[in-house]
Amino acid sequence: MFLNNDVTAKTAMLERHIVQPADPEHPTILSTEDLHVYYGKKEAIAEGDLRFASNQITALIGPSGSGKSTFLRSLNRMNDRIATVTGKIMYRGIDINQPDIDVYEMRRRVGMVFQRPNPFAKSIYDNIAFALRLRGVTDKHELDEIVETSLKQAALWNQVKDELNKSALALSGGQAQRLCIARAIAVKPDILLLDEPASALDPVSTSQLEDTLLELKQQYSIIIVTHNMQQAGRISEYTAFFNQGRVLEYDTTSHIFTNPQVQITSDYVSGNFG
Amino acid sequence: MKSTEQLEQQLKRHSKAAKLEIWGKVVSFSALLLIVAVVVAIIGFVASKGLATFFTNHVSLWDFLSGKSWNPGVTDAHGKPEVGALPMIVGSFLITILSAIIATPFAIGTAVFMNEISPNKGAKILQPVTELLVGIPSVVYGFIGLSVVVPVTRTLFGGSGFGILSGTCVLFVMILPTVTSMSVDALRSVPRYYREASLALGATQWQTIYKVILRAATPGLMTAVVFGMARAFGEALAVQMVIGNAALMPGSLVDPASTLTSVLTTGIGNTVMGSLQNNALWSLALVLLLMSLIFNLIIRLIGRKGRLQ
Ligand SMILES: Nc1ncnc2c1ncn2[C@@H]1O[C@H](COP(=O)(O)OP(=O)(O)OP(=O)(O)O)[C@@H](O)[C@H]1O
Ligand SMILES: [Mg+2]
């Protein structure tokens, strides 16, 4: 019995069903090769080779502690001072996991939104202008314009257009999270990484946020970590299933949900996990 | 029916825990009363003595605050006692502000290093060092000032070496650890996600420190500086050892001068209770007390504003 179990687990791993997206309309914009992430000696990502299609939404799902956040944070080098990341992270043909990469410039292209809405204790306007001012944009008209378009894209403009100078800390959770999205897209990134952006939000704000993301995918390639299976089903084209630091399955979302190849995935997406 | 009565009995009987709670309240309330009484008594005593200069000895408040010569035992040409406290007030403020101005950048720089740039080294080396420095008695600082700072000042700037400059140097070292450790606390209370948000937007570490962390920590940093100033303003012994104790308007930073505290400590043993000389010293003490109340008030105001942000 024992032996048998072990063997099944191994074959499951070896035959991990990983279909990389091959859609000529949405070429790969980001991919990882031989990626390993270590916290000290502990290996948190052991198998994490994925390709991400441009202008699509890719969902990362999996049980708690499976390494989704670790993986996501490695993609724009937010783990630099926290973990050791080996392997390649190819962004438009360039390995951005190299020491000679200017991470600050890279993060402008690969933006990130966190689980907990984290606006600065500044005005709404200054929150969005923050990254622009860092890059030397001082022209008032230009700033005004970018603040407006970013807020519109994040579907927050109508609610805050008359109080841009109000403290961002006075916003509701859902509004604050949209502000964070507006702040991230103000610098016009290529890729947007989101780590459970809706987990602190109520259902109404969550569905608004999902609509926003569906809009944003016209311009940005989106990778989103979520614990919410319905959410992954609603918004993503591709889904990767993480378990114990490995990608067990990666496929179109409809495949993952209707026809998972690995038993664990099937258990997880149907809610029978553990 | 019976069970209701039983329950009523149980609920109405004062259990041991309930009695203990009453006792606890009584004890802590009396402790509080005692402290309040002591504080009120001190303020009342200092105020009554300090105000006697003006009400019993009929010195005008204006003369006291603006007069430039301090010699309570002597009367001037107009028959008024010489109780001009301006030189001491100026001395105290000068030395406080100068030492705070010098200490602030050092303290914030050290705090940034300890908390942001190298938390490991900060925790291992700088933390124990600052804690040690806080614990050194002020007489030791004064003694070092007397045997090192004063001679160096004398060599560099001439004169006796005693004066505001030496006092400032000693106070700078004395308040530095306090301001530093409070600045570290201020930086530590800035949520970690501010740093992440800033870095994820492509800010460098320096930009993050400068534009996000220091901004968010400003109320805490200001509190740290005001605390340092309060300490500098009230420090007596170390300052008295290096300032020269001349109750004169200081012509320069290297002329002997005095502060409210240094005049108090040197003079209080040489006067008779109830005399003008004695009352005048109490007036200085009253000024000190009021100033420390004002410092406290400022700290509270900053704290409240910080919370409202
Ligand atoms: N800063 C850290 N230092 C050390 N270990 C960490 C750190 N962050 C995460 N880990 C470990 O790495 C593993 C993966 O964690 P990670 O946060 O990536 O999981 P996750 O899939 O995002 O989980 P969740 O769904 O709960 O957010 C876990 O075992 C976790 O304990
Ligand atoms: Mg996570």
Q: Would you summarize the structure shown here?
A:
By secondary structure, chain A is α/β, with parallel strands linked by helices.
Give a structural overview:
The complex is a heterodimer of chains A (274) and B (309). Chain A is α/β, with parallel strands linked by helices and 274 residues long. Chain A has one domain (5-269): P-loop containing nucleotide triphosphate hydrolases (Rossmann fold). Chain A is 38% helix and 23% strand. Chain A has helices at residues 2-14, 68-75, 103-109, 124-134, 140-153, 157-160, 173-185, 203-216, 229-235, 253-258, 263-269; strands at 17-18, 28-39, 42-45, 51-53, 57-61, 84-91, 94-95, 110-113, 191-195, 221-225, 238-243, 246-252. In chain A, the strands form two sheets. Chain A has a seven-stranded mixed beta sheet with strand order 1-12-11-5-10-9-8, sandwiched between helices. In chain A, strand 2 (28-39) and strand 3 (42-45) form a beta hairpin. Chain A starts with a helix and ends in a 5-residue tail after the last helix. Residues 1-14 of chain A have low confidence and may be disordered. Chain B has 309 residues and is an all-alpha fold. Chain B has two domains: 16-82; 85-308, Orthogonal Bundle (MetI-like fold), CATH 1.10.3720.10. Helices cover 77% and strands 3% of the residues of chain B. Chain B has helices spanning 2-12, 16-55, 61-66, 86-117, 119-135, 138-157, 164-188, 192-200, 205-234, 237-242, 260-267, 276-308, and strands at 70-75, 81-83. Chain B has a two-stranded antiparallel sheet with strand order 1-2. In chain B, strand 1 and strand 2 (81-83) form a beta hairpin. Chain B is flat. The termini of chain B are far apart. The mean pLDDT of chain B is 89. The chains are: A alpha/beta (274), B mainly alpha (309). The A-B interface holds A 76, 78, 104-108, 111-112, 114, 116, 118-122, 130-131, 134-135, 167, 169, 180, 183-184, 187 and B 191, 193-194, 196-204, 207, 211-212, 215-216, 309.
